[in-house]
Amino acid sequence: MSSRTLPLLFINLGGEMLYILDQRLRAQNIPADKAKKVMNDIITTMFNKKFLEELFKPQELYSKKALRTVFDRLAHASIMRLNQASMDKLYDLMTMAFKYQVLLCPRPKDILLVSFNHMDAIKDFVKDTPSILGQVDETYQQLIEMYTPMCSGEFQLIRQTLLIFFQDMHIRVSIFLKDKVQNSNGRFVLPISGPVPHGTQVPGLIRMFSCTGEEVNRLKFTNGGNYAAATREGSFEIFGDRVTKLGTNMYSVSRPVETLMSGTSKNSAQKTKVNAAPNPLAKEELNLLAKLMGRLEEPNPGNTDSGFRVNLFATDEEEEEALISRPDELSYGVLKIQATKDLQANAELAKIMGEFTVSGDQSPSASSKGDDLLAMMDGL
Question: CA-CA distance, 213 to 127, in Å (whole number)?
Answer without folding.
Answer: 55
